[in-house]
Amino acid sequence: MAAQKLVRDLCRMLKLDPCDIQKAALAPEPDPDTAWTIVAAYFDDTVEGLHALVHRPEFEAHLKAHFSQLPLPPAEKEDPAWYALRNVIYAFGWRHLSQHTTSGSFCYTDGDGWKYFLNALSVHSQLLYCRTGLMAVQALIAMSMYVDGIGNPSLEYMLCVSSMKLAESKGLHREPAIAWNLDQSAIRTRAHLWWSIYVYERHTAFMSGRPLSIDDDDITCQLPTDQPGGNHADLDYFIGSITLAQISGRIWRMTKRLRRSTPTFQEIVDSISELDSALGDWYSSLPSSVKIDPASHSLPADIHPYKALFLYCGYQARLILLHSMLVRPWNEVPALLGEYDKDRFRKHVWNSTEIVAEAARSIIRCLQHVNVTRSSPKALVYEWPLVALSTLFIYVLQFPKLPTVAADIQYMDTVTGHLDYVGFASADLDFPFAREVTTLARLAVSRAARGDGFVTKDSLSQSHVAGQLDGPATQADESVRFDNAAPSDNHELFHTMDPDHEVWGALLQWPDGDDTSFGDVLGNPAIDIMSNSFM
Length: 535
Known about the structure:
Blueprint: H1 2-12, H2 18-22, H3 32-45, H4 47-50, H5 56-67, H6 80-98, H7 112-121, H8 124-129, H9 134-146, H10 156-169, H11 184-208, H12 232-259, H13 265-285, H14 305-323, H15 342-365, H16 378-398, H17 405-426, H18 432-449, H19 457-460, H20 492-495, H21 518-521
C-alpha cells in the first residue's frame, strides 16, 4: 500500500545508520576567511540567524578570540559547547551558501555542511553530562533546527528534547530568583533562549505525535519583552508563536483528559469549541505585520516569509488536529451519547468536517510561497502538505457529489505537483503516495457520478489504484467511503510497523487494545457519522 511505503520512508529518516557516525572522523574546519563568510551568511540570511537564537556580537567575539590562537587548539582540548556551537553555525552558513553554488541532490551527506554538523554531534555527551553554560543549550537547539531542513534525517525531536532538559537543569524555565543576582540583560537572554526552545519543542512534538516534555504549569519564565535586533515584527512573531505553542499544549492535555475518561458527547463538543475559540481569538489578535492577507494570500513585508507561513499553516494544522476528533475514526474519544439529539450530533460533526476541509485548502493555497531549497523546513515542504492532502482525500471519499469536489481534486493535484517538484529538485525525495491517492480520489468521484457509491476498506486494500474501486456498490448511500472500522481492525497496516523503530507515531495514532468501531465508541452503532445523510 502507498500509505505503508510513506510511513516506512518517513520513519526511516528518524534515525541515522550507525556507520554514519562510527566511521566519521572529525572534519577540518574552514580557514578564517571562509569561516567569517559562512558566519555572516548564517546571521544575515537564515531564518535561524535572524531569530537571534545566538547573540551575534558575543559569538563573533568568541570567534575572533578563537582565531587569534596560533596554533589552534585540537578539538579534544576545546570547550565542547563552543566547539559544537561554532560547527553547527558553520553547517547552517555552508548550507545556505551552497544553495547558490550547487544543484541536484539535497542529500544531507553531500558537501561540508553535514561534516560540520557531525563535528558538533561528536560532543553531544559532553554537552549533556559535563559542566557547561548556556552555550551548550544554544548548541543543542541549533543542532535540532539544522536537521529540520529537508533531506536531513529527522533527528530534531531527540535533539530538541535534549536541549529542553538541559535548559531545565539550568533553571531556564523558572523566573530567576533575586538571590541569583542576574542583571536584566542576562534575564532577557535566558527568557529568549527558553521560549525559543519551548516553541520548537511544541512544534516537533506536534509534528511527530510525541508527548510534551514539560507541563505549562511548571513554567514561570517571563515572556520576552523585546527582540534582539529591535525588529518589532519579529517580536510580534515570537510572542504569537509562543501563544500558539501554549494552545497546542492545551489541545494535547484536553485530548489526554478525554481519552482517560468517558465524557458525554456534549463535553467533547464544549472542549472542542473552547479551544477552537482560543485558536480563532489568537489568530485574530495577531498584528498585520505577521499575518498573511486573507484575501490576496500575500505575505507581510516586515518578517521572513517562513515566519508568517509557520503561524498561518500552524494555525490551520491545529484546527485539523482539534476537529479531527469528530471527523477521523482513528482519532475518536470514547463518549457517552446518551439522549443527545441525533440532528444536533450530526450538525456538530458536519461543522467539524467543513472546518477540517477548509483548513486543508488553506494550507495548500500557501504552497505558492514555499521555496524549495536545502534549508527549507520539512513542515512547510511536505509534512503539512501531506496532512492537507490526506484530509481532502478522506473528505472527497466521504462526499464525492458535493459541488466542491472538482475544486478539491484540483487542490490535491496542486499538492501532487508540488511534491513532484520537490522530488525533481532534490533528486532524493519521492512521494508516490500523493499521486496514488489523488488518482484514487478522482476515480472514486467518477464512480459516484455513475451511481456506484460504496467502497469498502477490504476492496481498497486488494489491488492497485486502478483496481481499487471494485467493491460492492449500493444505491442507498451516495458517499464513496471507507467503512467505519477503526484502524485497529485493519492489522495489515501495522504488520510492517516495528514500534522499536519509532513508527508508532507516524500518520496514525497507535491503536490502543480496547479500541472499537467509531459507532460503538459513540455509544450508538446505528449512528453513522461518516455518511452524508445529515446534510
